[in-house]
Amino acid sequence: MSEAKAATMDSVWQGGGSPYAIGSKKFGMWLFIISDALTFSALLVAYTYVRLATPEWPKPFHFSPSIIFSSVMTFCLLSSSLTMVMAVHSMNHGNRKATVGWILATIAGGLAFVVLHVTEWLNLINNEHVTTSGNEWGVPLFGGTFFALTGLHMTHVIIGVIYLGIIAFAVGRGKFKYEDVEVSGLYWHFVDLVWMFIFPLVYLMSAKI
Amino acid sequence: MSSPVVHAHGAPQGFIRRYIFSLDHKVIGIQYYFLALFSVFLGMSLSVLMRFHMVYPDAKVSLFEKLWPTGAAGGIMTPELYLSLMTMHGTIMVFFVLTTAPQSGFGNYFLPIQIGAEDMAFPVLNMLSFWTTLLALVVMVSAFFVQGGAPLSGWTAYPPLSAVGPLSGPGEGMGQTLWVISIAIFCGASLMGAINFIATTIDLRARGMSMMRLPLTVWSWFVTAILGLLGFAVLLAAGVLLLLDRMAGTSFFLPAGLVVNDQILNHKGGSPLLWQHLFWFFGHPEVYIAILPGMGLASQLLATFSRKPIFGYRAMVYAILGIGFLGFFVWGHHMFMSGMNPYSAMAFSILTMSIGVPSAIKTFNWIGTLWGGRIRFTTAMLFALGFVSLFVSGGISGIFLGQPALDLYFHDTYFVVGHFHMIMGVAAIFGMFGGTFYWFPKMFGRMMNETLGKIHFYLTFLGVYAIFTPMHFLGIAGNPRRYADFTNFEFMNNLMPVHKFMTHAAIFTAVVQLIFVFNLFWSMRKGAKAPVNPWDSTTLEWTVSSPPPFDNFAGKHPVVNHGAYEYSVPGAAKDYIMQSDPA
Lengths: 209, 583
Known about the structure:
The structure holds 2 protein chains of 2 kinds. The longest helix of chain A is centred in the last third of the chain and has 33 residues, at 140-172. Chain A contains 6 helices and no strands. Chain A starts with a helix and ends in a 6-residue tail after the last helix. Helix content of chain A is 77%, strand content 0%. In chain A, helix 4 (96-126) runs antiparallel to helix 5. Chain A has one domain (23-206): Four Helix Bundle (Hemerythrin (Met), subunit A). By secondary structure, chain B is an all-alpha fold. Residues 1-7 of chain B have low confidence and may be disordered. Chains A and B meet through helix 2 and helix 5 of A and helix 7, helix 8 and helix 9 of B.
């Protein structure tokens, strides 16, 4: 390492500032995301474990309506990530009104996802007779893993909707800074990212082809 | 250079804002400390009852019947009651003492001061984290008072028994459910604490406090927080799945055709081994969560009271990092007996024993620090020396248990009980005692009584070796663990006198702890007034008044010019240079 480079590293890490050049709140959110990612990883590992140990894992999701339906859900959630990017962008330019608008659009995307997801749950429970303890295919853990994974994810989406609601309210009243919006965006993108694992692993891999 | 990021909040007026729902890291640290103090006495009382029952299983004790009318009808403890005491002893000690006191208690109080910060990075999160921990403790203890009593499945809560409900035992109904809920709440509290500790250490160091000038206590709290951040996340997932198995009828940890108490269960497809993997992925790092703060503290105390710089500061830092890193790859050594591919067992075994390398680096560096020092035998120093002794004694037996061939024999015997009590239990508690005697003057503005402290140390040191050394011999002789009563086994007859000795030693050691409690509370009111720096230490907490002002440095921003342990520097005016002394 050259001497100049070592000197700059020293100056960043020698105390008196944030070495990652980000605020503590943003850093704290990244730490939370690391931890939460591990929680979801553990659940996905558990799912993989029981699925591999089961000879005939059911594949009940027809292209229509299940896969189309879940694809629409995915579209809603991914679009809400895009509107979140726009919200952060607007806040960066000091446009609070536009920020609130984009956050409300994000919340709408999240709510649409939740409503569709609950519909999907009710369809599975009422029409396909899948519960946490059993189903027609004789693999009770199909329901267990499905509801555990999607349920925990949906909890995150609902918390995110409430979180964004608070942010939108405060931003609208002239409170909170750019960093607060950006940090809430981090959380929202993370929740979307988790779905990008759950969607293929839970839905697509159990599609009836 | 800009001044450090300051999260200032003025000193609140009013008792409740100041001492109950306080945002001040110092008050929160003391709250954690007393939470752990309550828990440790609760846990210790349970262990004394267990030891008593083990050697006098037929004794009729009316107190037992008063406390547990069904579990001890007629004054005689049932095996189920014994198991519930064992479960609660382990759980309370591991989570609410070993995880809470050294990290959340001392760490909260001293990490910000030692790095020259006014408070933690997130004071509100800090307060929430304490109150969540208290809630978890209340939920855990309430398991004693529900139908069926406390759970029976040990602090590891192994399924299938922990997953099938009251069918598997009296405490496995509501009691076990409360256990899982409490642990899940505790995971949340630990997560909040971990985020706070890491962000504070990275972002709020005073000018000049580079990472390689951090006191080793700060390094150990920092790495412990990383372990907590990653470990508790996985325990939370495991807890959610266990709760689903119990409440929603899923089968994550329950295989097909399971028969419990003559009933075939309607579960299918899961595996108890899944729990063991998830649990120990947390459980092994948890061991280091308990011991690392003690290691940091021992380094601090040995350097201070030997009047020498810590031997090999950088090596010590890398050893802490190495132990923390390797700790995530060895969970399988808890499962050698659970059925494991021998090649996996070999890999886990090699990784396990490689942790001996950083551990040995630390031990030799501690001894190197002592070598040629002008040692001051204060009570705090005695406990630090006791820590090193117990760490070595407990660590040696870990090398035995890390080898599958030996573990097959030692597993689930008293050898294991002796091993982890020495290294994770008593060594960590010696670290807490050392920390109490060292930091008490700063926390409460008065000195603790050294004579009482030394009497307490010597009696406790003798006591814990008397309790836990014989356990290794019992284990080698084949004495199984988690049995309520050994009097009905012929091969155990010759070992019963050893058990009696240990029980008496345990009662003796428990009584001796009253000396400490007396010293603690007496010194708070009557101890001699503490000066700013009673031990001639170098770290930043010894530059401010005892106890420190609300914002720690009375509005000033300390600037650090020296490493953490500059003792006996040739040519210096005094035999120590404070970190904030001019360069």
